[in-house]
Amino acid sequence: MERAIAVTKVEDIFEKYRNTPISKLLEYHNLNRTFEDYKSAELLVGMCMDHRKHLHIPDNFSYIIRSGGANLRFSEFKVSFAIAVGGVQHIAVLGHTNCGMVQLKHKKKEFISGLVERGGWTPEMAEAHFVQNAPIFGIDNEIDFVLEEVKRLRLQYPNALVAPMLYKVEDNKLYLLREDSE
Fold first, then answer.
1. How do 173-177 and 161-168 pair as beta strands?
2. Exposure string over 140-157, b if 16+ CB within 10 A, otherwise e
3. Distance CA 151, CA 80 (A)
4. In this model, does residue 102 exceed pLDDT 80?
5. How many CB atoms lie within 10 A of CB 63?
6. What residues are paired with 14 via a beta bridge?
7. CA dihedral 137, 102, 92, 1 (to 10 degrees)
8. Residue 112 pLDDT more than 90?
């Protein structure tokens, strides 16, 4: 079963997301919906810090939190702020293909040498930093991680509608992720 579902027309958007800011995100980015004017954000997007991704959305439409692998575990206060003060009730979690956080454990040597060469760290400091943080920030698979992150956020914010998505860097499009119940 294909888990990443292409959105090439409005009818491809899952029913539960239609007529919501989540649908608007997909329509703006994938379907070139005409931009509307926004005075305040309607959506929170959690996405990777990767430089290859850019969302086609209007100004003021969305809060965006960028974190390696779309991992929002250490951004809960920012998520809470967007909900409590910003008034959003919709969250899109966007993983992406070819994510550098996938299989991070295999990038230890590159990580250490990069911090030594470009960061001015000692090899010992760089290795200790990697060993301490790689298990926290590394992910095995981008789709599985996004689906788990969405489950976690739904438990933490039960009144928010949280949607799992995948950004394919190959075509710069957003895909909905099918969950077990769909």
1. antiparallel
2. eebbebbbebbeebeeeb
3. 16
4. yes
5. 20
6. none
7. -140
8. yes
Query: What local confidence, expressed as pLDDT, does residue 65 receive?
Result: 97
Q: CB of 23 within 8 A of CB of 61? A: no
**Spatial separation of the C-alpha atoms in residues 96 and 172, rounded to whole Å:** 10
CA distance 96 to 39: 29
The per-residue pLDDT for 152 is: 96
* Other residues' Cβ atoms within 10 Å of the Cβ of residue 173: 17
CA distances from 19 to 70, 71, 86, 120, 179 (A): 24, 27, 20, 50, 20
CA–CA distance, 179 with 16 (Å, rounded to integer): 13
Helix (H, G, I), strand (E, B) or coil at 126: helix
**Cα separation of 173 and 2, whole Å?**
16
pLDDT of residue 68: 86
Q: Output the six-digit token pair for 115.
A: 């911090």
Q: Mean per-residue pLDDT for 122-136?
A: 94
Dist. CA 104–CA 131, nearest whole Å: 11
Per DSSP, the three-state class of 24 is: helix
Q: Give residue for tokens 């991992």.
A: 71
